């Protein structure tokens, strides 16, 4: 699928000899509407608006009032689609919009006279719409508003939201915008959203960038529509009427030739429309300050990765000494900008648009230290290799081979430090492990302070004189071994060396007649060949297309430090399967680089610079199984070019010997690394041929991900398509890596390395306000916001947000409906309700994760808020469905209810359908007024609290908040949480254990916990007949609580520990027990028969709720003993939402039971 940029070039090529004239305002308006309607709006709803919301949140939170200048906004301001709390901060709005039709529509939209609220409701003056271009001159004129204008006007934020077409030179326009930023308070910014093409700004330095490479525009395949669309993309029409008519025919042909058709929309043409965001601050022009301190690269810097070559960095500096690197870091910290690092140049993000790159090529020395000659006191007798970060793998191998040594590095000679630090899978991996496993020390420049850090074992002569050992040295060394591009700029790495080997390589090529044979051969390759190889041997497989059919290529590598004593033994079974090898060679470590089958055997050889490639790698536990084999074969069958292939590198051996949490490289349990390789002729880069190969790589990776044991982080970067893969990199180490990144790179200087998860934010209270239509949810939410902000001892920030507003904005943009009326006019909303509901359902059909994504967008948009109240939820059991997404927050559901009479009164009528509400909840029946509890029985969901909103005014809502909601932010909860000790690496390494039972061992802890259990109970203790508990943690807290509320205690123990008669059920192992060992012995729990009278009310008390298995067994036991489900409640001291215990209980029929937790923690 061609990009809009390539379409524009092709259209203009067909009109070079014809006199042209610019588009009229009407022509431009029509073309723009075609572009942004429907699929074109996706870039705004999925990229521009979320990025802008995230960007402006931190800026707006530091200002009471915000002034905004928008350049070329079009008919509607993108600011009007921001979340409500951001829009209300904007008190001054100016726009330069030279298209008079757009300017008029924009003014009408912002100055609504229909009685609905303006998209920017808090403007102090009318919006200032200037119907002229934003120019580089000294006078940019005045507009239609009442505010005055002069050259000294300053703004907090300036936006170029619809690219910078016709603005040349673009750098000067951005500099002109920077001059218009306010000086105080600091932090003003210029944001540029540029659709398609590359934005070269000649040395301006970005504060932040983001990309949206998957943007697509769909255009109806209709002559009239294509005529308007093509003119808009080309940017002109013909002066001569006859010539214009003729060129339109040609342009339709071009559009149809370059556009791609999709089966889902066969009557539309699709074009790729990638989008890019660049953000600049007043520091954008400070590059000369760095250039005066650090040498620049001489001439053009050519990196290996062709994708990276398309990225025009702000500058490439070439430090020649460690002090230069320190100056780069200190400059970046001072200016608040990012850096990238160039090692081998294989990474697609070693260069990044308008970001300074640090080229490490001057650090190219390899030092060899014989055993015991490192100048230290370490008794380890191994030889050491000190490789500086500018070295390539080939440099190290050549130098060490001369000394009879080697290091287990990657398979290509041109790769650099980025590979060693993020894994490094080579042909010695089965024998000696990954490259990162051989790292024993490093010298690193901190990106937090600019200091030189000495980490691990570094020979004294290769340490900088001013190097220090950091307090978290062990953690940093751990992180460098598998995720090392994220934590500092590495100057040198110390490797443990091994004796050099000689290698025997053998190749087989097996044509595959059909899918059945492909599965059979893959199974043979794995189970009859690879699994039987000794550790000094490894086998690589290649699935590829050649001569009209798929092939399986196999290369066997055998290393030996003496003689090839196992050559015959390893080749015999293979020969019996596939016949004699195609060829065999005996080579040294350097010659090994050229023996890869794809270099010389496949498609005539990929070596010599004839092709370019794009790769992503997943780890597979097996390749012969039906599901995996079918997926691999299907991948090869669907490749867009026969040059594409799958490379299967054998793992196991020493790779598996290392525990997953012993290094940052946490993906250890795999048999093959599947490298999905899209290939195209080198001269075809930045064409549809290359783009289709890249799409194929991501599609195959997505299909294999659920079958994989993880993803390889070395290839991944800031491309949003990598996010799903990055979530499966590093195995169980992601939480620890997130904390380490936050500690070592708190200002995200190295923002373009393999993405790591963000460290957990402070715990917030999230209240989901649900209920029937017209029950008064939004009103209650606003009342409760005022209670949190005014009625607590500690000042809190609180905000109410409607999650449905996002869908309404999308719907309005896609259909032309009036957004203000959708948000504020109930009658208008009711009129659009069926279409709005269908639109939402279609969006969910296209993206089943949309509800979760919308929820997270709302939460992330309130990052700095202590209490967030969300209305407009559609989920029937939102706490069970969503709490695992925000495991470090407390999630509550408050169900607002009102009688039908009151709801009709609020609607403004005495009839109509009140059941067709936005939230798809059923009538919940009768309940105790404002008690916070319900006597509901026939439900698969029990909200945390209920509120009856049947009275006028806010007194009842305030009283409810004071009695039930404010206690969730009480300082006693903080005191109790601080008593829960965090124990790292227990019960096994990599687990951070929360010692909930330790509360009882703290002075006053047990009494405080029992008191909070009593007061947080939403029912009436006088109506409770028994407190039930399961050993051992439950005994401690339930006993104290039962004594406090004077209720009998029902003990639940392991079978055999209570005298008969008893009732028992099977109990699965608890979460912590499952971590302690791999035993799967079945256990039963029991309670005394008839200890609970028929019809009794029981509250189950336990110390933790994690997976929910234990609690589920307890509830099943109570049911078996005759207790009715509607008479059971649950209280736990601590809940761990990440394990989704509530969802398990709901799936097993216990969703209607009220479950309350006093504390909430992320992690284990």
UniProtKB/TrEMBL annotation:
SUPFAM superfamilies: FAD-binding/transporter-associated domain-like (SSF56176), PRTase-like (SSF53271). Signal peptide: none annotated. InterPro entries: FAD-bd_PCMH, FAD-bd_PCMH-like_sf, FAD-bd_PCMH_sub2, FAD-linked_Oxidoreductase, Oxid_FAD_bind_N, P-loop_NTPase, Pmev_kin_anim, PRTase-like. Residues 309-500 form the FAD-binding PCMH-type domain. It holds the Pfam family Pribosyltran. Belongs to the oxygen-dependent FAD-linked oxidoreductase family. This is Phosphoribosyl transferase domain protein.
